[in-house]
Amino acid sequence: MRRRPSIRQRGTALIVFATVLVLGIAWYTVGALGKAARTDAEREIRTGLALQAAKRALLGYVALKAADNTENFPGRLPCPETPSQFGTADEGVAAPIPGYATCASTGRLPWRTLGIDQPRDGYGEALWYVVTTGAGGWALLNSGTTLMLNPNVQGTLQYNGQPNTAVALIIAPGAALNTMNDPATPAAPCAKVNQFVANRYTAPLNPANFLECGNVSGPQYANPGSSQWSNDRVIAITAAEVMDAIAGPVADRIQRQVMPALESWRTTESGNNWPGAQFLPYASSFSDPTANDLCGDAGVRAGLLPVHTTASCIRGTAASASVLGLVQFPCTQSATSAQCSFQRLFGTAPFSATITVTAPVALGFRRPVTAAEITVSNGGQVVAGSLSSSYNSGTELGRTQFGVSWPVVNPSQTVTGTIPHPPASAFLSTAAMAWFVDNNWARYAYYAVTPAGTAGGPACTPGTDCLTVNGLPTGTGNANDKRVVLALMGRAVGAQVQPSNSPTDYLESMTSATVFNQDRITSTFNDRLAACPFQYTPLSGTPVSVCN
Q1: What is 111-162 written as a DSSP string?
Q2: Is the domain of 408 the same as that of 435?
Q3: Same domain? 285 vs 318
Q4: Per-10-residue mean pLDDT for the chain, 548 residues long?
Q5: Of 1, 10, 106, 445, which sits 20 to 30 A from 439 (CA to CA)?
């Protein structure tokens, strides 16, 4: 016969069960509290990782675009996704696009354009993105807007109280806030907000429903940290970071595009413009790149590329000759043109005269004037078929000559021929050169050319009067046969001070007037060299010339 457990035994079992239950509840409570604390930290970590990933993606995108031969503004940032794109098939795509042509300065990160998954902060919110748009900014407002991006361009956004600090901001909005009932008064630029609104996720998105304080529309953008008024987390992109990201691709384009174009000018286009010529222009003497006039200086073979289009950079000197019966006055020159005048002394029309203009065209990339660009006053005309141009390799002067016919009516009038100084060649606006010239990259690329290149000779003697570039990759050709070198000058390193009139504050690669050394990019060396001749050797093993 089985005996029942005693009352004492049953009581002991209940006590043990209760103890286990209490310990379990305590363990669960402590674990839950610990897990909640870890979740807050995990949210911050996730937010930080999302911001860093977005920044890397933006800089990578900019570098990739800068390497594209068709990119006219290397360094430009994409526009944000406009607030109206939320919830559509175009969500995540940078404006301007059909249907959403406006490039807003504030919107969400264009993750599809960047080619990444949509990054979200620790609260699951999509990241926002701020960039200045339009002329003077870092993103295109529309297809007709022009930018000018180069190492001298600064940030345009105020960030953490510092003006012109950032070119773009990425913002993690965090959880929605409601501070309307807070009795305290927020300091400017903060304001009380209620982001728990029914239309928070309705297009067009309102930045004020996600961002706080100056981050809504600026200009006082900031990373405020933990505050009762804001929980935004912000990471900035600076101009220096963009320039560091694109320096390699820009140098590569200088080698692939600019160098072959310069060689084409030397061998073909200079002669097409000035029959008898074959030259690269003299350099503009080196001085502060931000203020250099970029006008070539005779006999100077190292400095900056003379790409200035101002007429007075290359001034022509005019002379005239006339037939018997005309008085010719001394020709004069102004900043933009040369003028020669004639007056009838005796006889009857028709009369004729010849005007000859010579100009130091080896100081830049210039072309002769056309008949349509020459004006003749009081009924005179350029004689059809009389306009000609030529080049003297000994004097390095280009010559333009043409005849002027006299008016039949009022033959006693004074006739003046006005001839513009040689205009800039269309060479500077070709696809290979326009991005380099228009964005002022020529101010940040040191230019060295051999005497043979500027004096009209097609070649130099390796090891004698050629330039030498040591340290180029194997398979790119000889080191000591370079006719021309462009050294992309980076930001100041070490003891360098910029801006400066000394090339030593910009160059680490130049060891003498004719010798350059390419090295790996470090904290003390950031020059990148391009040269001609230059080749590359593909896997097939057969060298391919990039620049002969």
Answers
A1: HHHHTS---B-TTSPBPEEEE-BSTTSSB-SSTT-----STTPPP-EEETTE
A2: no
A3: no
A4: 52 51 47 55 95 98 96 94 92 84 88 97 97 85 74 93 95 96 94 95 96 93 90 96 96 97 94 92 96 95 95 92 83 95 75 91 95 92 94 92 80 85 96 96 96 69 91 92 95 93 97 95 96 91 89
A5: 106
